[in-house]
Design brief:
The protein has one domain. It is 5% helix and 56% strand. It has one helix at 4-18; strands at residues 31-32, 37-43, 52-67, 74-80, 87-92, 95-100, 111-112, 117-123, 127-142, 147-154, 159-163, 174-178, 183-187, 196-200, 205-209, 218-233, 236-244, 249-252, 256-259, 262-265, 267-287. The longest helix has 15 residues, at 4-18.
Amino acid sequence: MLSRRILLVIAVLLISTLACSVSVDLNEDELKVGKTVTEEIRVERLTGGETANVNLEFGAGELKIDPRSPDALVEGVATYNVSELKPKITLAGSDVTIRTGDLEFKGIPRFKGEYKNQWELKLGSDPIRLSIQGGAYRGEMELGGLYLVYLRVADGAADVELKFSQPNLGEMELFRYDTGASSVELIGLANANFAEMNFKGGAGSYVLDFSGELKRDATVSVDAGLSNVRIVVPEGVSARVLVDRGLANVDIDSGWEKSGNDYTHAGVGPRLTINVNIGAGNLELRSR
């Protein structure tokens, strides 16, 4: 459960990070905290084996995602104590959207008392194009063992741990992650089985861990501002990192070789090619 003070701090970071036009109205009515409600979220599997477009729009709170639902496309529970946070499910053909109510704040949301908003979801084994949009939230996501053909995550001021502990059952065309003033840890990225990955961050701390089974060549682009970025590649995996570093410091361990702004990691099999553009801060290249 997050306090109002924490919420306001995170929301301010979110607004500054997104650098968008936001009309801040501190005279907006406060949202009242009431009785805690727990309700089921369930979306049945699509017929015909078609790919589902699953969109999760989560404002603030705690989001947990796990595999695998045995007989549903999405199932789980939502727990909240502000009526306006009641989740809304919209179905349109193969498109599924689950969002945090119908709130459209003019400015920083204000809650009278401590609020609670938690989703605990499981995704099914059907082919999925998954989009997760979050604001100021804490996320624990285990996506290993799913059948993902596309993944996009976009968040603001967040604390996220996203894992692929098991190989993705599908071939992912693109994994895109856009974040702001956040702490983001991506683990088991080789198991995601993507052809291309784009990561864009603002002022934050980011870990990209490419452990797992790399089944094919993959290209990664990392674009970060004033950040601490750590890239981890397992021993024996072939990788090349090309750095446009601005004022950033680059630190490598003994598993990497340096030639100018070109860093290589010896290995066999499929290769990771990683292009890093970091304006300031620190870039760490690690072998594990």
